[in-house]
UniProtKB/TrEMBL annotation:
InterPro entries: Cupin_8, JmjC_dom, RmlC-like_jellyroll. It comes from Rubrivivax albus. SMART domains: JmjC. Residues 101-272 form the JmjC domain. Pfam families: Cupin_8. This is Cupin-like domain-containing protein.
Amino acid sequence: MPAGPDALAERADVRADAIPPDVLASTEPLVLRGLVAHWPAVQAGQGGPLASIDHMRRHYRDATVGAWFGPPGIQGRFFYDDSLTGFNFSAQRVRLDGVLDALARHRDDARAPAIYVGSTTVDTCLPGFRDENDVPLPGLEPLASIWIGNRTRVAAHQDLPDNLACVVAGRRRFTLFPPDEVANLYVGPLDLTPAGQPISLVDVVKPDLARFPRFAEAMARARVAELQAGDAIFIPSMWWHHVEALDSVNVLLNYWWRRSPAHMDSPVHALQMAMASVRDLPPAQRQAWRHLFEHYVFDADDDTAAHIPPAARGSLAPLTPDAARQWRARLLRSLNR
């Protein structure tokens, strides 16, 4: 078995209405114990799964959501099929109250089907929920999403935004890996993914080290924490995270935001273009482009263009909204030739 992961760093002194800026700007993950324990939704959930469901029903207003349903045999692990060309679950648009009914109906089933509503805008499906249950994050303009399901597992993946995830009901176990562990996580297809982000093919709960031997190195650097209702976790941008929901009814509300100007494009597009135009070059040419990327992108600082007069720096100048639009226009013209 791989070496055991380390415990995540924790704090129990942070208030939801006064989260220190250094917490939300951290490049390391952090558990915030009891951050939202005062929420009415968390308090209601102390009465059991049905009480959590009833609290959500109070805010339901005829909303449809994207939901995943899997047979009992997948044991809550939403994943690919054996060929990696499809999935072991079905994705459907359904009424949220129907999902809540199914969770209530199967709450005591030893072999319940896997039921999962992921990353749904909370204000759309449960209007008014955040009037009582919210974390103020002034200046960040976050997107608030809700996640509802039973005992399910989401494979290790990365997200571009920073993420503050608050456990409303049930327990969740988070296993996190630093961004530089990508080579040891055996990431699956980039073009066909369960929810948009590429995922690790390794079952973190039962890793097959004969098939994925380097995963032992990733696990040696992993961080893990089990969160109770009322706890929260801050996950910095691009940290890999595997999430297990451990009870028959689990609810999580999270906040996403990016610490970059709105006019900046997604780095994913740059990666895709690099794969299309650089990856398959001859080794010597690829190495030459590595040096250019390092000079102009990864190691860029004030000295990179210091030898050029400011008025003549063009694309070497700091990126502005107008410059970003011009870059995109030139790129589109080039791609459409």
